Amino acid sequence: MAVTLKAPAKVNWHLAVGPRRLDGYHPISSIFQTCSLCDDLIVEVGEGPFSITVKGLETLCEPGRSTLDKAAALWHEATGFDQSLSVTLVKHIPSQAGMGGGSSDAASLLLYLNSIADSPLSSSDLMALGAKVGCDVPFFLSQARAAYVWGLGENVEPIPAKDLHGFVIVPKTDKVSTRAAYDALDGRSEIPKLDTKESLVSMYQKPFADWSFRNDFVLVNSMPALDVLPGEKLLLTGSGSCWILLTERRSLTLNGSYDAIRVSF
Questions:
Q1: Which one, 29, 189, 191, 251, has the greatest CB density within 10 A?
Q2: What is d(CA 153, CA 138) in angstroms, rounded to the nearest whole number?
């Protein structure tokens, strides 16, 4: 019997990126929060031996190269899971958006597999497995609405979430790949120190109009041309290319280069 899973998108209210480490990765200091925009995963478990078939990503990645394929393979290796999986993905989260769609899809599948197998992996083991799939996966595995996230994304500390509303501003062109975005940051003449948990959580607790969060990836993303009204806040999420407008407006008119999706956080 098929089940439908919801995989929520995330935003970064703040994203500071440190210098590239010897292993090629960059440490971060960030505030993550989920939003109402979700992908749908239709999952069916069948008889063995282990295999996975993924539909719905044909235009986004090569067969067998998705985060769902990687998560399922690691799950099979860690637990001996020996059944077949069929996953049909209905995408609503934009690609190359900085909203963690692929990571959330993988986390939703892992949480489901762990639940139907009577939780063979502890929370910490599941988080460690998820970190091998992608840096944002541990946040989604935590099932926190909001969290302070640091290191390479494997360290997640939930924090009380604020109820917010606004729009995802989605560029139709000029999207930036995550790899290219990180490579661009290596050319910075000066790299600020990563922010502490205390400073970021204190800022998050303020009214959003008073936030002074930053996202280091503004270096490689074009800001959308729209009028930000007093009391509103426009922030880049992830490595781009989407922006978040926090506002009480119910509708938003943009030029033809962008789409707007109303969301809650």
A1: 29
A2: 7
